[in-house]
Structures are given as structure tokens and as C-alpha cells.
Amino acid sequence: MNIVAWIVLGLLAGAIAKAIYPGHQGGGILGTMLLGIIGAFVGGTLATFLSTGTLQFTATTLSIPGVAVAVLGAIIAVFLWNWFSRRTA
């Protein structure tokens, strides 16, 4: 059941982040899901670091605050992906 929650969280956070972030992001449904899952890890790690001061590789849960943190992490992931792909192209 945990894997299904990760897929749902990834789709939800990735879709919201793609809708918020300006410009066109390709990738389809799998790219959106992967973006959301990466965002959950990035957001969870940043939230843990800011609240406890320790750097731990954690992810958010499927809840309202968890989705919000995952969306923020996914926006950061989209920004970094666009920044690195623009520099190399």
C-alpha cells in the first residue's frame, strides 16, 4: 500500500508543480510522477533540515502538509532541471 501512496503523491505533487511553474515542461505522466516523487524527497529533506537542523534523507507523507511540501520540492526540482538543461544545451 505504501507504493500506491507514493505513486498518488508523486502524480499529485508533480501535476500541481507543473501547473504552477511557468513555461512548458514535457515528460508525460511518468515524468510527472517521477518529478513529484523527487519533489517529495527534496521537500521532506529540506523540511527535516529546517525543523531539526540535521540533514536526513526523508520523504513526506500523503497528507495535506505532505503534499504542500512535496509540491514545493517538485518546484525546486523543476527549476534545477531547467537550469542544468539550459546550461548544457
Helix content: over 70%
Given the structure, what is the number of helices?
3
Q: Please give the largest β-sheet.
A: none
What's the end-to-end separation, in Å? 40 Å
Strand content: under 5%
Alpha-beta content class? mainly alpha
- Secondary-structure element sequence? HHH
Instruction: Report the uncertain regions.
Output: none
- The overall pLDDT average reads 80
Radius of gyration: 13 Å
Quick synopsis:
The chain is mainly α.
Walk me through what this model shows:
The chain is mainly α and 89 residues long. Helices cover 78% and strands 0% of the residues. The chain is built from three helices and no strands. It has helices spanning 2-20, 28-52, 64-88. Helix 1 (2-20) crosses helix 2 (28-52). The radius of gyration is 13 Å and the shape is globular. The model has no long low-confidence stretch (mean pLDDT 80). It is a multi-pass membrane protein. It is found in: Cell membrane. Belongs to the UPF0410 family.
